[in-house]
């Protein structure tokens, strides 16, 4: 199971404990504990949850084993940008102002075959036309949001 995801996040919890006759999962949010062997749980709020599995074996002297792991749930990023000058000018650099939120990395496609991973790139269009320019914003969990504008040059 991944240890991170985005809202709403459905965790599929896998019990990999060896042995055990019973399982108790403490999902560490407002949900009650679960006695399912491999429960599925929806996390509806951002945050880090330290999930605890208690594996119980009533047939041995080592009756209880406890396993913990963390799940981090992130908000989905929001991509957005503006550019200047507007309209962009052929053979002159245009400044792209990234105002995305909740993102840690970016992928730009300027619509003319050129790309960038910079936060606030400067790009020059070498032809006249309208270029469908897109920004993909990625958060720490790899979730994305895409924002596109037609940029006249």
Kindly describe this structure.
The protein is mainly β and 153 residues long. The protein is built from no helices and 13 strands. It has strands at residues 4-6, 9-12, 22-26, 40-43, 47-56, 64-74, 81-84, 93-98, 105-109, 115-116, 122-124, 130-138, 144-152. β12 and β13 (144-152) form a beta hairpin. It is rod-shaped, with a radius of gyration of 24 Å. The mean pLDDT is 90.
Can I get a quick summary?
With 153 residues, the protein is mainly β. It has no helices and 13 strands. 0% of the residues lie in helices and 49% in strands.
Radius of gyration: 24 Å
Ends distance? 47 Å
Quaternary organisation of the protein chains? single chain
Count of separate DSSP helical elements? 0
Number of strands: 13
Q: Tell me, what's the shape? A: rod-shaped
DSSP helix fraction: under 10%
| Major beta sheet, strand line-up | 1-6-5-3
Poorly predicted runs of 5 or more residues: none
The string of secondary-structure elements, in order, is EEEEEEEEEEEEE
Kindly report the average pLDDT value: 90
User: Strand portion, in percent?
Assistant: over 45%
Give descriptors for this structure.
four-stranded mixed beta sheet; four-stranded antiparallel beta sheet; 13 strands; single chain; 153 residues; mainly beta
Question: What's the SSE blueprint?
Answer:
Elements: E1 4-6, E2 9-12, E3 22-26, E4 40-43, E5 47-56, E6 64-74, E7 81-84, E8 93-98, E9 105-109, E10 115-116, E11 122-124, E12 130-138, E13 144-152
């Amino acid at each position: 199971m991944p240890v991170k995801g985005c809202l709403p996040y459905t965790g599929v919890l896998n019990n990999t404990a060896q042995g055990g006759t019973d399982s108790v999962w403490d999902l560490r949010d407002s949900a009650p504990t679960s006695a399912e062997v491999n429960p599925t749980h929806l996390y509806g709020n951002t945050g880090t949850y330290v999930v605890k599995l208690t594996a119980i074996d009533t047939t041995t002297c080592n009756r209880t084993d406890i396993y913990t792991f963390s799940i981090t749930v992130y908000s989905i990023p929001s991509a957005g940008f503006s550019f200047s000058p507007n309209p962009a000018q052929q053979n002159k650099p245009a400044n792209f102002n990234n105002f995305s939120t909740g993102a840690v990395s970016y992928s730009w496609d300027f619509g003319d075959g050129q790309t960038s991973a910079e936060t606030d790139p400067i790009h020059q269009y070498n032809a006249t036309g309208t270029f469908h320019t897109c920004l993909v914003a990625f958060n720490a969990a790899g979730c994305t949001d895409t924002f596109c504008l037609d940029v006249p040059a």
